[in-house]
Specification:
Blueprint (H helix, E strand, L loop, with lengths): L28 E3 L12 E7 L4 H15 L5 E7 L5 H15 L3 H13 L8 H10 L4 H8 L2 H16 L7 E4 L3 E3 L6 H18 L5
Parallel strand pairs: 2-3
Antiparallel strand pairs: 1-5, 2-4, 4-5
Length: 211
């Protein structure tokens, strides 16, 4: 259960830093060594490492969706589904990539979280996933082809690679500019992750850390 333990029961926000507050290395963030290149040249890349199987990721999802829509033009946001070597979570990662490939991700991203954590649908096998997406109006043949495709396997392998390079050991985790990882802290909860990410974006911009 590689969930970010500091976030348990901490949905509220107390004593949150502002985006202009002084950040403390080792308290608010840890460095990524060596720094990692981004995939979007000229942009400050923000990555959310997550899994559909993580309840805290489910709670964060609507907050980070709204936050991402308000990011400045020089910031690129993307999600990285992780498996931590677990077959069930690898299937959830394939579900994410297959939904993206078939154009259904934006419509069904939150629905996957809700199915798992509210409706207790066990979307951990290929068969269960196919059965569920069929109930969501997804064209099943195209989805099945995407799910088992070389492209999705490549993206899954790339995600595993990034987890290793960024030393991700819990989810949700946010990384900024390939240089900084937000540290979750007791009492700051999920909103605190985003507030610290805002401050790290400011830091990255000042240091010329765009990809």
């Amino acid at each position: 259960r590689r969930f970010n333990q500091f976030l348990i029961g901490a949905l509220g926000a107390s004593m949150l830093p502002t985006a202009h507050a002084e950040l403390v290395q080792g308290q608010d963030w840890r460095p990524i060594d060596p720094p990692q290149p981004g995939d979007v040249p000229g942009k400050i890349e923000v990555l959310e490492f997550f899994s559909y199987g993580c309840p805290h990721c489910s709670d964060l999802n609507p907050l980070i969706d709204a936050w991402a829509k308000e990011l400045p033009a020089d910031v690129a946001f993307r999600r990285i589904p992780v498996s931590f070597g677990r077959a069930q979570w690898a299937n959830l990662s394939r579900l994410y990539f297959a939904l993206h490939s078939t154009g259904n991700l934006e419509r069904l991203n939150q629905a996957v979280f809700d199915a798992l954590h509210k409706d207790r649908v066990k979307l951990f096998t290929k068969e269960a996933i196919f059965e569920w997406v069929a109930t969501q109006g997804v064209e099943t043949k195209a989805f099945a082809e995407a799910f088992d495709s070389f492209d999705v396997q490549t993206q899954l392998s790339r995600s595993d690679y990034l987890v290793g390079r960024y030393l991700i050991d819990a989810v949700p985790t946010i990384a900024v500019a390939g240089r900084y990882v937000v540290i979750a802290q007791p009492g700051k909860g999920l909103p605190g992750l985003l507030t610290t990410a805002d401050a790290l974006i400011v830091k990255a911009r000042a240091e010329g850390a765009a990809g």
